[in-house]
Amino acid sequence: MKWLQEFKAFAVRGNVVDMAVGIVIGAAFGKIVSSFVADVIMPPIGLLIGGIDFSNLVVTLNAAVPATADAAAKAAVTLNYGKFIQNVIDFVIIAFAIFMVVKVINSLKRKEAVKPSEPPIPSQEVILLTDIRNILQKSR
């Protein structure tokens, strides 16, 4: 039972919960960016380069074989480099978007750090010790 208590303590720590929330939000963000790339960015790019739809760019390595009475149908073996190009563009856009978010967060942190803060008020003991030090320095 001790390992169950240790797991519970681990699972409810702030860092683990924050990480879980980040993963869920990241997955949702990834879907949004993938849709943005596939549905908004790629159609104009395909149009600019001659109406090419990247997802349909393939090299057929082995043609499909239709079903016969003796054998079942075999699907074509293809090298889907268009989907790879699509995924590379997705990655670049996602990486850029995350870079921009981190850049904004870092600039906000720098603004917080730059704020001049008032020095802490010294305790009574520190004030008395400072006075004693000053008196001793004057008496020398």
Give a quick rundown of the structure.
The chain has four helices and two strands; from the N terminus they run ααββαα.
CATH superfamily: Large-conductance mechanosensitive channel, MscL, domain 1
Classify the beta-strand content into a percent band. Answer: 5-15%
Mean of the pLDDT scores?
81
Number of helices: 4
CATH class term: Mainly Alpha
CATH topology: Non-ribosomal Peptide Synthetase Peptidyl Carrier Protein, Chain A
Question: How would you spell out the order of helices and strands?
Answer: HHEEHH
Named CATH architecture: Orthogonal Bundle
Helix content: 55-70%
Strands, count: 2
Class inferred from helices and paired strands? mainly alpha
What is the CA-CA span between the terminal residues?
Answer: 69 Å
